Amino acid sequence: GQVARIVEHADATEAERAIPLCNAGVVCAAAPNLFRWLSGLRNDNRQGEYYLTDVVAAARAEGLRTTAVEAPEAELRGINTRVELAAAEAETQSRLREAAMLGGATLTDPGSVTLAWDTRLAPDVVVEPHVVFAPGVTVEEGVRIRAFSHLEGCVVRANAIVGPYARLRPGADVGQGAHVGNFVELKAATLGAGAKANHLTYLGDVSVGAGANIGAGTITCNYDGVNKHRTEIGEGAFIGSDTALVAPVRVGARAITAAGSVITEDVPDDALAIARGRQANKPGRGVKPRRKS
Question: Which CDD domains does this entry report, sorted A to Z (predicted)?
C-alpha cells in the first residue's frame, strides 16, 4: 500500500497508534514539489507546530504516489547523544570487520581493530589487536600489521610487515617485503622493496631505495622552520644508528653512514660518511671524580 500521512503520536488515534511502523525521518521527493508543499504547511495541531511530515499528505492530495520503504533499525537509528553516536559507530565497525574477514583478511582480535569506511585489506592480510585504520589505507596481500599500529592515507605493499607500535601517516608507501618496526613513523615517505626501518626512527619527506637498512634512532631533519625538504636514500644503503639526515640531502646507493653522524652533505654511491666528534680517552681520569674528599 501507500502512505496516506504521517501523524505525531500525540495527535494519532488508537487505530493509528496500532500500526507497527514509525517514521525514521527520511524523505525522498522532487525538490520543486517538496518546496511547494513546505510553503503550504499549517500548524493546526495540538502543539501548534509545523510538521515537515505533512508533506506526505500534501503529495497524496495531488494524487502522487507515496511509498514507504522498510529498513532495519540499525540503518535508521537516530543519533542525538554521544551514547547513541557510540552505538552507531559500534554497529558500523562490526559490519566493516565482518566484510574484511569475509574478504579473506584475518583479524586476530576483531573487536579491538578500528577500520575506516574505505579501508582496503587484501586476502591473507593479518591484523593483530589494537590496530587503527584511519581513512585512505590500502593493504596488499600477505601483509602483517602488528599490534598497536596506526595507519592513515598510506599504501602497504605485498608481504610487508608493519609494527608493532608503528605509525604510517599520509603519503607513506611501504614497499613489497619491507619492514617498518616498533616506534617507527613514516610521513610522505617511500620505502623500497625489502627496505627495513626496524626501530625508533622518523622518516619524513624521504625516498628509501630497495634493500636499504635504516638503523635505530635515525631521523630525517626535514623541516627548517619554514619549508619541508626531501631526503633521498639509495638502494642498498646502510644508515648507521642515531644518524641525523639534514635535508635536503642524498645518500647514494650502497653508501654507509657511521653511527651518530649528522649528515649535511650528499654522500656518493659506495662511500662511507663519518660526521661526528672524535672520541678522546683520558687514562685514569675516570677514577678521580669517584674519590671522596
Answer: LbH_GlmU_C
